């Protein structure tokens, strides 16, 4: 039986580890106060007390726009803390699993990004996340970094996913505008949690792009969410969606507009396809009902 400490216990991905039944793993989820990523001596003390075999770090500062304002705080959570945690784990022969982001790329490639493509973060969130994942990979060859994108799933209290935003706007009768030039891959957090455990069982280390199959534009993703919500009985009808370009939103912050990641490396190591996000979307909408 392997003991796994999961950070960020109240978050979306951590929630999926709470619902998984795995006979070979015993999970524990210290609260933020018990395992604060910005407190290195506290983390060291907890690792000594709890003696996990593996740490899964789902904690992060994910408010991309706020990162530009809370620059120091977001950097300390997304860049400095993963480095400290990775070093603390390496010193104790604990494997660390950490999550990066598709935002490490600038989008210029306009075709599938692999693990060997060069990163070029465009904003402070992306730069912090890139620094964090690289520090984790440097600290030990047994550490794992998974890069997901557009993560979604059901959560008992969290209602901040893009799916929630779309459904709320539709229910309030607001006109939905969605970008046709922004493309990525929706990733079902339940799948991401399962792939993580499969990699741990294989004692894999290194960097993996961890997304479902089928890249899609934000516009098409929005339309599919609405159609599936009607089928699930969450909406009476799907309102029209107006296609716009990213420039329409006139954001001061730069974001990559194409971050479709190739999941071929992960699929090869796991020995199976990673599957579409469609099944996950239907499961989430059924749970929301
Ligand atoms: N969601 C996405 O679309 C997406 C896309 C690409 C990559 N990722 C990456 O995937 C991973 C999991 O994301 P997620 O969606 O599960 O994130 P999430 O729902 O935002 O959860 C992050 C958790 O981190 C906790 N946290 C923040 N600062 C902390 C600190 N100093 N000490 C301890 N805990 C702290 C938060 O606690 P509070 O609840 O108290 O704030 C929250 O529970 C992250 O590395 C994220 O960057 C996510």
Relevant terms:
single chain, 289 residues, alpha/beta, Rossmann fold, 6-stranded parallel sheet, two-stranded parallel sheet, 10 helices, 12 strands, 40% helix, binds NADP nicotinamide-adenine-dinucleotide phosphate
Question: Can you give a write-up of this model?
Answer:
The protein is an alpha/beta fold. It has a single domain, classed as NAD(P)-binding Rossmann-like Domain (Rossmann fold). The protein contains ten helices and twelve strands. The protein has helices spanning 12-19, 40-50, 64-67, 71-91, 124-139, 162-171, 189-201, 218-231, 264-270, 278-288; strands spanning 2-7, 25-28, 54-57, 95-99, 144-147, 151-152, 176-179, 183-184, 187-188, 206-209, 216-217, 241-244. Strands 2-1-3-4-5-10 form a six-stranded parallel beta sheet, with helices on both faces. The chain has a two-stranded parallel ribbon with strand order 6-9. A two-stranded parallel ribbon has the order 7-12. Strand 4, helix 5 and strand 5 (144-147) form a beta-alpha-beta unit. Helix 4 runs parallel beside helix 5 (124-139). The longest helix is centred in the first third of the chain and has 21 residues, at 71-91. It is globular, with a radius of gyration of 19 Å. 43% of the residues are buried. The model has no long low-confidence stretch (mean pLDDT 96). The structure holds NADP nicotinamide-adenine-dinucleotide phosphate (NAP). NADP nicotinamide-adenine-dinucleotide phosphate binds at residues 7-8, 10-13, 32, 36-38, 58-62, 77, 99, 101, 148-151.
